[in-house]
Amino acid sequence: MSSIGELLASAQLPDSDTALLDVELLLARVLGKSRSYLHTWPDKQLSAGQLEALNALLERRRQGEPIAYLLGRQGFWTLDLEVSPATLIPRADTERLVEVALELAPSSMARVLDLGTGTGAIALALASERPGWTVLGCDLQPEALALALENRQQTGLAAVDFVCSDWFSALQGQVFDLIVSNPPYIASDDPHLAQGDVRFEPASALVSGKDGLDAIRHIIASAPTYLAPDGWLLIEHGWQQGDTVRALLQTKGFTAVQSWQDLSGHPRVSGGQWHG
Ligand code: GLN
Fold it and tell me: What is the pLDDT of residues 109-125, one digit of tens each?
């Protein structure tokens, strides 16, 4: 038998910046309790089944599996979202995209499209802040769409719509005041793909051609057809892609082209306005 306190003191830690936190989160998950419970009841004994479940999760964590996939949950904006290996784990950097979108679009009524919505994170975060907006999320992957619908259900943001679409392919004839996207933008030979959490995330959500810009080029080339006059296009991109993405937007004819910085001070979101 092992108590919570003994386990926290002796667990073989994963090789992670957040090793002890990871153990606490997994232990809390196995017990179906909060992290504060662990510190309030250090003498509580785990059953054999709980211990086995914990050891299995710890082993997967030591193999590098992202904590969000082990827990099946990730916080994003104010939302607690379900995640799965079908799609990208929402990142704090992407909250910057949400902030910028909220600043730029008219607060009362706007038609908004989230291209490649994955878990639905961006679409749901925007809808949670702007009940008057009409928000549509699209994704090509059926498993991602199922997850987005599950998250819609869990967050109670019933007004958000989700459709299956290969970028704009299923959206003919529709126009939006704001189009946002966190597309795949990593170059296919980027060595980071062999490190950390991204090893467990689907390539379709991460990688986009030789220079990582295939999806971004496609979105910028196609978006004007789907933008209302004065509508905005906002795209998340890699921290070294800001100059290129702004140049693509300018060449296409977008105005007010600019970039916004992420939490590390790198240009992470770029966008422009379309006058039609
Ligand atoms: N920001 C992610 C990373 O660098 C990539 C996400 C994406 O390609 N959209 O791990």
Answer: 899 999 999 999 999 99
